[in-house]
Amino acid sequence: MRTVDEQGYHFEEWLTPEQIAADVQQVAKRISADYHDKEPLFVVILNGAFVFAADLIRALKDVRCEVTFIRVSSYFGMSTTGQLQFIVPLQQVVENRDVVIIEDIVDTGLTIHQLKAHMRAEGAASVRVATMLYKPNKLEYDDAKPDYTGREITDEFVIGYGLDFDGFVRNLDAIYKVKE
Ligand code: IMP
Fold first, then answer.
1. Which of 43, 163, 171 to mutate to test ligand 1, by most ligand atoms within 8 A of the CB atom?
2. Is the bond leading into 47 cis (omega within 30 degrees of zero)?
3. Separation CA 176–CA 164 (nearest Å)
4. What angle in degrees, to the nearest 10, is found between the helix axes of 17-35 and 50-59?
5. Where are the alpha helices (H) located in 36-169, listed in sequence order?
6. Which of 15, 72, 85, 107 to mutate to test the pocket of ligand 1 (most atoms within 8 A of CB)?
7. Other Cβ atoms within 10 Å of 121 Cβ, number
8. Active-site positions?
9. Measuring CA to CA, which residue among 128, 103, 90, 116 is closest to residue 52?
10. Residue 45: beta bridge partners?
11. How far apart are CA 151 and CA 149, in angstroms?
12. Which among 173, 170, 178 is positioned nearest to 153, based on CA atoms?
């Protein structure tokens, strides 16, 4: 089994590149079935989701789609005015569009909860969420439950395949779990 040591923590390989690829195919198949007769707008949440998104959108079959990118503040995602803080703002008009948000991991669901509210306020026809990983035990916002999940995970810290540890290790080709 492959291991990684990063900033004093020990990580062990949890999902191999082959397992990840199988999960991505499974998600892509479901999205393809649901969206082949629509023209969805995929909204990729930077930075973490770029790896998953690149694999996922190339695995879609017969889906005419657009892809755009956003980055929101990790500082609770909200300003004191209650507005979502966009570091990279939404460049596309979402009004009347079928939006699919692509996320790396849904944890408390706060990011998704706020983004969904924003998309609805902007007049999106529908908003769904595709995520590589989902921590159901941690979910605090019901409406943030993802529609398409690669794999569920208990409350453990993971890295690789886009997921970072203080900005590093996004480039690992597998997903690694921290070991005590
Ligand atoms: P949420 O808004 O609480 O759902 O947080 C989601 C974000 O937290 C993800 O996009 C990641 O950036 C980060 N995150 C949550 N769990 C992990 C993890 O295990 N490893 C790396 N990043 C994580």
1. 163
2. yes
3. 11
4. 60
5. 50-59, 110-121
6. 107
7. 10
8. 107
9. 103
10. 70
11. 6
12. 178
Please give the model's pTM, rounded to 2 decimal places: 0.95
CA distance 53 to 165: 19
On whether the CB atoms of residues 159 and 176 are closer than 8 A, the answer is yes
Extract the tokens encoding 65.
Answer: 């789609």
Q: Which two tokens stand for residue 9?
A: 């923590």
List, for residues 88-142, the tens digit of each pLDDT value: 989 999 999 999 999 999 999 999 999 999 999 999 999 999 999 999 999 999 9
Mean pLDDT of 162-166: 96
Please write the tens of the pLDDT for every residue from 22-32: 999 999 999 99
- Residue 175 carries which side chain, given as an amino acid letter? I
CA of 85 to the centre of ligand 1 (A): 17
